[in-house]
Amino acid sequence: MYNIIRESIFNPKGIIKYHNKKGWFVFLYLFIMIFLLSLGSIVVLIAYENPTLNESSTGCVINSGEFVCSNEGEIETDIDLYGIPVYFLGENQDVNNVPLDETGAAIAIKDNYAYYVLSNFRSTGFDISEYNTFSELSKFLRTPILIGGIVFAFLQNLVIMLFIILVSTLPFLRFRKEIRYRKIFKMVTFAATPIAILLTIYNLLHFHMIIFFVLMFIAYRSVFTLQKELYYRSVIKDRYRENQKKNSEDESNEEDDNIIDQEEDEDK
Q1: Of 37, 64, 32, 35, whose CA–CA distance to 190 is shortest?
Q2: Which one, out of 178, 199, 222, 230, has a CA that is 20 to 30 A from the CA of 184?
Q3: CA nearest neighbour of 177 among 241, 133, 84
């Protein structure tokens, strides 16, 4: 794996040597790239400073496992967990009336139940009577948001990376008569390593967009170089075939992957 990363950055033409890597290896390599891309979101979620929940901040007291709140009238809150507003409702306040933030999400606490509200959907109330302190309640509310945020970041970056790889394979379709698409996908996935590294650094540092686009063009060098190398090998092969015809020699039956199969897999 280290050799692939090194080749993709310093010698993209050498990626051709790894076209016979197994599917599970490509999946693992892609998973590692997605993990790196998600580091920025993971760091933000872990480092997020959530407010402390207590009687003064919530306007509630815990009575026999039930959160009794004195809040009445208009539903308002100054509390949020990972940016999602949290409402502690009084007896006459309705869960269906809680305001939603720009993402369409909110958390509502009433009596001994917690509700996660997403747009027009309200989750079934989760029993929180077993939590006897505000710190325990806060941990219970934060855990699904933290896990959900990490999973969402993984899925989002998976879509982004697959989109980049699939779009990058389009110029390689000219070689589809000589190279199977699954091998093209493998090589382009390895060649996309500098792009994944750049996106990882950008997600962590958030530098200027102009600098990002300049570096993205440089990161695409590996894909461009790989395409150029395959084109060069294809031209050489075509000339060889023409010379064979001119010399009236019988052409041998060549495999579809003849322009890359001359490279031996490094593991072998």
Answers
A1: 32
A2: 199
A3: 241
Q: What tens digit of pLDDT does each residue of 55-91 get?
A: 888 888 887 767 888 877 778 888 889 988 998 888 7
Torsion sign over Cα 240, 8, 38, 23: positive
Rg (C-alpha) for the chain, rounded Å, is: 28
Q: Is 113 helix (H, G, I), strand (E, B) or coil?
A: strand
Burial of 213 (0-12, 13-18, 19+ CB in 10 A): exposed
Which residues contact residue 37 at a Cβ distance below 8 angstroms, ignoring those fewer than 6 apart?
Answer: 157, 160, 161, 196, 199, 200, 203
Decide: 163 and 40 in contact? Cβ < 8 Å: no
Global confidence as pTM: 0.79
